Structure formats: structure tokens, C-alpha cells
Amino acid sequence: MNILTFDLEDWFHILDYNETSHPSHWITFESRIENNTNRILDLLDKHNQKATFFCLGWIAQKYPQLIHKIATKHEIACHSMNHQLIPSQSKEQFIDDLKLSLSILENIIGRKVTIYRAPGFSIGKENLYVFKELSKLNITVDCSIFPAKRNHGGIEKFPFKSPCRIIGEDFDILEFPVNTISFFSKQIIFSGGGYFRLLPYFFIKSRMKNANYVMTYFHPRDFDPRQPMLKGLPLKRKFMSYVGLSSSFRKLDFMLRDFDFVTVGEAATSLSLEKLPVVKY
Description:
Elements: E1 2-3, E2 5-8, H1 23-26, H2 33-47, E3 52-55, H3 57-62, H4 64-71, E4 75-78, H5 91-109, E5 115-116, H6 129-136, E6 141-142, E7 164-168, E8 171-175, E9 181-183, E10 186-188, H7 193-198, H8 201-209, E11 214-215, H9 235-242, H10 248-258, H11 264-270, E12 278-280
């Protein structure tokens, strides 16, 4: 099962950086989201592949025509309103942000949005209330779990790296965690973000061929070598944000040629829920 997803963010939606941490900062930057997304949509058409797009409500509010265009062929999911890490919000702020983003997306596409991914995969053990709140708003599928240690989230001892159910007293959520591999004693993701841009394609292809489950996650900025470089980024963050931009679009082209993908929704309907492993919270 190979699942194809994109987090619909602009090039300046960088986490853990004060200069881009709030929507009030974003209006000062040139937007590149439409051109970058259209390149991706054209490539998906070329390979006859469909994807799930986790959309920021902020993007949807500014570019409703882009969301509508994506929705004609692909699946729309929620990635929050303002791209704030969950630990940085109060429970009430998280709920308000989620409600607003869902309302904007649903008004544009004319149907319910039932799939969610937290910014930065920032669901951790300290904010498990999120699952109950998602369920209250008719979210049935989550793609937020990073089953390893991470700067802004992650559940290091999460027991599964493949689809499972997360069940609590008032919720039952189908979870598609990110798949990780052990690489020099470190858990990494080869199928998205900085590691996808950094690693050679032959390595990625080999890992995918040997995997029963792959959850990809890309951003339009991952394929934009001409994007501006934010000043003052820490060296590690600068490396992870800009490494491999010149070759990443070609690698995505190869991946779409070599493998078949499904959307999150298609993956969900293919599963027998009663047969999935369960995590209780």
C-alpha cells in the first residue's frame, strides 16, 4: 500500500522559526503556491495518479480557486488553519483553528472533510485530547503520528508503523502513521520531506519495493529550487529545508512512474477495520 500525500503550504510555512511563525508575517512574502502546485498537478496527470492534499485553511482562504481545482481530481484533507504546532496552542485555540479550517475547506469543495494531519506531525503524548476533538468534528482518519522521537512532536514508543485504530472512551480514529526505517541507529523517513530530497532515488526505490506500507508526505516547496532562502535559519534547519531541491522533482517523476499510489481515502476503504491492531488512549 503506497499512499500519496501533499501538505499544501507555501515556501515560507517553516516551523520552528520566529520570523515565519505567525500569519501576520506571511503577507510580507511572495507567494509561490499556485505555480508550484500546478506543476505537481500536471505531473500527477502525466502519470494518472491521484493524491490526498492536506490543505491549510489559510491557503484555501486566499486561493479558493486552487483548492477547487485540486478537488476536481484529488482528495482534500485538513492541515489546520494557521499551521501552528499543537503544543503551542491551548485546547480552545486548537479547536477554534480546526473548526475554521474545516469550514473554509468544506464551503469551497461542497462536501465534508474527514481526514486530518497535524502541522509538523506534532501530536504527542501530552496532547492526546486531539483525537477526541477530531472525532467530534467528524474526522474519521488521522495521518499525524510520527512513531519516533521528533523535535516538535512524535510518539517515540508508538507500537505500530502501519495502519491501526486509535480508540478512546469517546472516539475511534483510523490512523495512518508515517513509516520509518532504521538508518545508522536513527529512525528516518525516506518517503517525504528533507530525507526524500537528500537520499538518492535508487535507495528510495529499493526501500519502497521492500515495504508493505509507505506513507509519503511532500510539500510544493520540496520541488522549487528557485524559492527564496530565509535568512537566519539555524544551519541544520537550513540544510533540511533546502537540500536536494534541484533533483527532487525528477525523483518524484521517477517515483510516480515506478509505483502505483492511492489516496488516504482509498486506502481507508480498502481496509477491514475489525482486523486492524488497536492502540487505546
